[in-house]
Every structure is written in C-alpha cells, then in structure tokens.
Batch of 2 targets.
Target 1
Amino acid sequence: MQTVPYVDLDRFMGDWYVVANIPTFVEKGAHNAVESYALNDDGSIATTFTFNKDAFDGELKTYHPKGFVLDHKTNARWGMQFIWPIKADYRVIYLDDDYRLTVIGRSKRDYVWVMSREPQFSDDEMQRMRDFIASVGYDPKKLQRVPQQGG
C-alpha cells in the first residue's frame, strides 16, 4: 500500500479527531474519538487514544499504544504497539498539505481511520474520503462516521 511521500513528524504531532473509520472491535460504538501524538526523546511516538463508549456520555476509554517509525525516509510507515512485542501496521496514506486531514491505512485493508484536526466533517468530505479509500482497495461501504460533539 502506497504511503504519502513524506510526513513532517513535528507537524503531524498533536490531536486528531477520528471522524470516520472501519473500526477495530475496540472502537465499535466509539463517540468523540481522539488520537493524540507526541514525539518521545528516543524517536518513538507516545500515543493516547480516547473515546466514549456507545454514547457521548458513555464510559471514557483511554489507550496508550506506542508508535515506532519504521520507514525513516518518509516517516509514513509506523508500527503501533498495543501489546508487546506486536507492532501493528500503520500507514499514512493520505495527508493534505496543511496537515488538517489524514487517512491511516493498513496493508491488509481491514481497518482505516480518517482523522481531522477539527471534529466537524462535511458530507462532501466524507464522500471524498469514501472515494479515496475505494481507490486504494478498501470497501467504501464499510466506512462509517464516528460521532463527534465538538472541539
């Protein structure tokens, strides 16, 4: 799966609202999902993933996987470690010039995450992302919005 040509890690760090996805079992029913990244001194990426389970006022779930850049030429292919020693495939396959919208995919094309710096996500943007993920081999019918309340 083709990644973007280059990711400026400093610009990529910070909060990203998960506005649409093909969810993992953990994320089913997620509301207000936010993925936050911070560079560690050793080059790894501290990640905090939070969401409310099944409703805006549902139980707050928080996960702390650790990211590892696997391709230092592009910084676009990572391993994401939830459980040692397994590093899940994590690829930046779309990133706009302003670092406002990104798509994270996996070579298996089983899960995908559309993330934005803002929680609002228009129907037109949703359709554009649906078309994009279809163009890289995903089933666009599986892409679903992640309910977001605001920022």
Target 2
Amino acid sequence: MTFSEYKYLIWSDLYRVTGDKSVSKLLRELVLGEGYKFCFWFRTSSWLRTHPLRPLLYPLAWLVLRHYRYKLGISIAPGTDIGPGFYIGHFGGIVVHGKVKIGRNCNISQGVTLGLKQRGENQGCPTLGDNVYIGPGAKIFGGITLGNHVAVGANAVVTKSIPDNAVAVGIPAKVISEEGSAEIINKTDY
C-alpha cells in the first residue's frame, strides 16, 4: 500500500463518520471517536506492515492497535482487505477474520462476527460487496458472498450467499426484501 492509498483510506473513513475531511475533525475523532480511532490505527498498522520502515514503526503501531483491540473489543487483524469508507458505528464484540474481504462503504455494528467456516459446504471466509450494512449481533460465516447494497438485520446468521440489493434477516438468514441498504449507507461522496 502506498502512502497516497493510506491517506485516501484514512480520509474516506473519516468522511463516513463526520461528513468532513478536515484536520480538526481528524484530531477530534482520534481523541473522542472510538470506532474511527480503531479504524485509524488499523489502517496505520496495515500500511506499516509493508513499509520499508516496518522494523521501526510497525511494532509501535501494532501495540497501539492491540491496546484499542482490547479496550474497544474490536478484533480485526492488520492487513485485512477492507475497502475505503469503513464505518464502525458502535464498538464492542466485533470480530473479523483476517481473510475476510470487505468492499467500499461497509457499516459494521456492535457484536458482529465475520468468520471462517472450516468444514462442510462453503468453507472459507466471507466476501462483502460495496455499500453493505451489517446490523448488531449479526454472524456471517463461510466462503460466501454478500452482494452490493446488501443489508443484514440484527442477530441474523448468514451462511449462504446473498444477492445484490437484498435485505436478509433471521436464523438462518433469508432474503425478505429487495430494498437493500440504500437508505442506510450515507456519506459516500468522499
């Protein structure tokens, strides 16, 4: 990841939270915003993993990220493939496997798990499209795909792929609507 890509990710994540890309908003969110603070250190650690200064700076960034991992209850490994505009609405109980792929403008709520399925049908980790909303407590497992503009309801358990523009709820999750996440995902014009 280049420095310009890193900056783009930092500012796009900030814009999703505040609707602004100013240094004052950045500093405010780094002090007061739990979800953004974690995203910032996740992006910084991910960037420094492949940077030539890795031996000097990566351990420090990783320790800060680890601190916030335990303090905020968010477990996302540096290097996880997450597109720009990542938004964590509320912290606590969020677990994302390192091989999960997340597209642009994803909203993740508290208590969400995006995990690995190790046996049976759909082995692997989920791939999420662009503009996906995942409600509180949702669990998404296996080598499945959530299409673009998908909304997953609270406490849903998703073990099968979901098509574009779908709303999925229940245990196991079933598509109940084709309205998708259009009304839920906002501030995407960064």
